[in-house]
Amino acid sequence: MARTVKIESTDSPFRCVCSNGVHSWYADEPVSREGLDTAPSPEELFLSSIGTCATITLRMYANRKQWTIGKIYLELSLEEIKTESGTINRIHETLTIEGPVDEEQLARLKSILPKCPVTKIVTGQVEISYN
Fold first, then answer.
1. pLDDT in tens, 41-83
2. Helix (H/G/I), strand (E/B), else coil: 91
3. SS3 string of 74-88?
4. Are 20 and 5 within 8 A, CB to CB?
5. 112, exposed or middle or buried, with CB in 10 Å at 0-12, 13-18, 19+?
6. Which residues contact residue 98 at a Cβ distance below 8 angstroms, ignoring those fewer than 6 apart?
């Protein structure tokens, strides 16, 4: 099933309105990049897509296993590493789970992180067609 998001620029320098036809959200650049910092940057939206998908995937997995866990906290950061052969973008994820989770359950939940659908998109082969 294809998912569609439409983006519209605004009168602000870089602020955009994003919509899927049901919900609307915004993106902007920070002041340090000449934006007005009125919304998350595109990179922050990108990280939030990965993080929310992973968090939802972990919750679904825990529910299927009938594990009682509390809140799931996932912190993501994007690091740009310059090398002789180019740039590598590395995403760091730090997972914290509230509640009665033993080491085996925590290890299993961490092993699920790469299996969320958005992470699979990012780490798989992606093609963008420009019409």
1. 999 999 999 999 999 999 999 999 999 999 999 999 999 999 9
2. strand
3. EEEEEEEEEECCEEE
4. yes
5. middle
6. 69, 70, 71, 72, 73
Confidence of residue 1 (pLDDT cuts 50, 70, 90): confident
The type of residue at 69 is I
Distance (Å, rounded) from C-alpha 125 to C-alpha 77?
22
64's enclosing H/E stretch is helix 42-65
Tell me the C-alpha distance between 111 and 129, whole Å: 32
122 to 20, 22, 53, 74, 84: CA distances (angstroms): 20, 25, 12, 17, 23
* Positions of E strands within the chain: 6-9, 16-19, 24-27, 72-83, 86-97
CB atoms within 10 A of CB 35: 17
Which pTM value belongs to this model? 0.90
> Residue 20 has what DSSP assignment?
-
How high is the pLDDT of residue 3? 87
